[in-house]
């Protein structure tokens, strides 16, 4: 079974209180097709 829960905290880094060190960490970086990066 796979479960994905996503949250967006930005454009600044997440506060330490929002980080869960005992959970998996996935970092996603994307760029828009148009407009500034």
General description of the model:
This protein is largely without helices or strands and 37 residues long. It has one domain. It has no helices and no strands. The model has no long low-confidence stretch (mean pLDDT 69).
Break the fold down into its secondary structure elements and pairings.
Layout lengths: L37
Seen as an oligomer or otherwise, the chain set is single chain
What low-confidence regions span 5 or more consecutive residues with pLDDT below 50? none
Number of domains: 1
* Mean pLDDT, all residues: 69
In short:
This protein has one domain (1-37).
Question: Main attributes?
Answer:
37 residues, flat, single chain, little secondary structure
């Amino acid at each position: 079974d796979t479960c994905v829960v996503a949250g967006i905290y930005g454009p600044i880094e997440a506060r330490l209180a929002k980080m869960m060190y005992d959970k998996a960490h996935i970092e996603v970086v994307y760029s828009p097709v148009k407009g500034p990066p």
